[in-house]
Amino acid sequence: MARTNPAQFIQQTRAEVSKVVWPTRREVVLTTVMVFVMAALTAVFFALVDLGIRSALEAVLTAF
User: Distance (Å, rounded) from C-alpha 39 to C-alpha 32?
Assistant: First the structure.
């Protein structure tokens, strides 16, 4: 594997970073909001599943 000196490494790194397409502020805000909404929906879903399993288990255990 060929070794590069630090100057070449920095030059190549700057060239690669210049190719990056950065998101706009609006895109960042929208995706952040979407993450929070999906996390809340997931939390509600698992809370309901937990409540259902707990209720079913209590019903089975009280029957015996």
Answer: 11
